[in-house]
Amino acid sequence: MRVIITKDEDVVGDPLTDNAREDDGYRFHDVFHLSYAAILGWSPIIRTLLKVKRKSEPTTDEVEDGARAKIIEEMISTLVYTYARQHNYLDGIPRLDYHLLKTIQALVADREVRVRSLADWEQAILTGYEVWRKVRDRHGGTVRVDLFQRRLELLD
To answer: Contact, 110 vs 66, CB < 8 A?
Structure first.
C-alpha cells in the first residue's frame, strides 16, 4: 500500500510505503510534519514538499530549510514514532515523557524552532498522533492544516 499526497489535486512528493516488514501505518507519517507546521510553525520537510523554501534569504534557506534541518525533523519523527509505538501510539496518553521532550529540544537547539516550549512540542506531537491514528484507521483521508489557528484536523 502506498500513500500519495496531493495539494489542490497536484501530487506532492514521492509515494510513501511503510518501509517495514509489517503494516505499521508509518506511510502516513507526513501527518506529523503537518502537525509541526501547524502547531510549531516549523517544518522544513513541508516547506520543501510545497516548494515554499525561503530562497530569497540564502542563509535561512540553507540553515532552516536545508538538508540538515530536514534530517533533524525526520529524526524527531522517527524518535517519537519509536516512543509512540511502545505507548499504544499515544492513544489515551495525555502527557509525554519529559526526557523525550528535552531530547527533542536539544536536537533543535540551533534552529529557529528552539523558541518553542516543551508544551508546544507536546501539543504538536499529541495532535499529530491523534490525526495520524484516524488516518491510519481509515487508510487515508484529507487533512486540513490551519497555520493561523495552529490547528490540524482530519476532514470527514
So the answer is: no
Comparing CA positions, the residue from 123, 2, 147, 145 lying closest to residue 155 is 145
- What's this model's pTM, rounded to 2 decimal places? 0.91
* Nearby residues of 73 by Cβ (< 8 Å), 6 or more positions away: 33, 36, 43, 44, 45
Our count of domains for the chain comes to 1
| Structural domain for 146, as ranges | 3-155
Q: Is 70 exposed, middle or buried (0-12, 13-18, 19+ CB in 10 A)?
A: middle
pLDDT tens, position by position, 28-45 = 899 999 999 999 999 999
- Residue 120 in 3-state DSSP? helix
**Grid cell at residue 75:** 529524526
Closest to 20 (Cα-Cα) out of 70, 74, 76, 78 = 78
Distance of CA 124 to the CA centre of its chain: 8
For the chain, list residues with pLDDT below 70.
Answer: 18
